[in-house]
Amino acid sequence: MLILTICSGLKAQNPLYLLEDSLKTGNSLAPALSVYIPEVNYDRIFRNWVKHLETGTKSKVVTENGEMSIFGAIFQDISINPVNVYSRLTDQDSVVRLTVSIEMKKDQYVEKATGEAGMAKTKMMLFNFAKEQYLELASEQLRKEENKLREIEKELGSLEKDENGMERSISSAKKTIESEKDKLIVLREELNAVSEVIADNNRILSAMKPGSEKDEKALFLKDLELKKKRTIKSIATSENKIYKAEQTIKKASHNIPEIGGDQAIIREKLSEQEEVVQRCTDKLNIIKEYR
């Protein structure tokens, strides 16, 4: 058995194994090579292997009882002439075993027809195919985990935005309260002054005899009453603004600690996901180094 690479201690990835083997073709055993591809599912390897066999030729792969054969395949790295390829895929739990026998001429297989150089090229071709399958899977795993990381970052960013918004609303509400309280001082002084003027003029009006002067005084008092109503309304408006601002502060002050707790949870998730992404990145890089 030839072990082309070994696991470097990172449990996330597994080694690719290549061994010299044999494959039954018809009633005889032909020399073959087997490669063990971890993690990648059977159907994907089957599709990609068929595509690999049919590339560059009009010949089609024939599949029968789990065995594949193609006559006239083009493997230029191995032979300038078309070759016949017999292969079998076997699903073995967490690995798929691909066994391949290449017939250069009638009953002459790579082992005898091409010598050590041809066998080395065949091993490299098969190993590169297996490595490509594993790399494709590892790349997909990395993309999937990176997408998860981006979603968590987005969730954290949303919480931080909410917290900043609440802090701004508290600051704005405090300014509103301060401004409206200053305004209330002026309005209440104005209300007291108008009320005194109205009281004084009511006493004067009640002592006046009917006539144009009394009518003018009545109109003056009417204007004062309108001004008083407007002032009372302005006071109510300011008091309502203060109440709403206080409720805003109360609500935001209650929610900010909750959001802070949520942020702590999300940051922990983020840290964990960053570790997952790093493991996937390490896994991909290690597989790239497989030789």
Textual characterization of the structure:
The longest helix is centred in the middle third of the chain and has 93 residues. The protein folds into two domains: 142 residues, 2-Layer Sandwich (TATA-Binding Protein); 142 residues, Helix Hairpins (Orthogonal Bundle). It is rod-shaped and about 140 Å long. Strands 1, 2, 3, 4, 5, 6, 7 and 8 form an eight-stranded antiparallel β-sheet that branches. The chain is of the alpha+beta class and 291 residues long. The chain is 64% helix and 19% strand.
The residue ranges in which pLDDT falls below 50 over 5 or more consecutive positions are 1-11
User: Structural class per helix/strand content?
Assistant: alpha+beta
Calculate the terminal CA-CA distance, rounded to whole Å: 15 Å
Question: How is the main sheet built?
Answer: 8 strands, antiparallel
The outline comes out as: rod-shaped
Classify the fold: give the CATH topology of the largest domain. TATA-Binding Protein
CATH architecture of the largest domain: 2-Layer Sandwich
- The number of distinct β-strands equals 8
Mean pLDDT equals: 90
Radius of gyration: 43 Å
Beta-strand percentage? Answer: 15-25%
CATH class category label of the largest domain? Alpha Beta
| Helix content percent band | 55-70%
How would you sum up this structure in a few lines?
The chain is of the alpha+beta class.
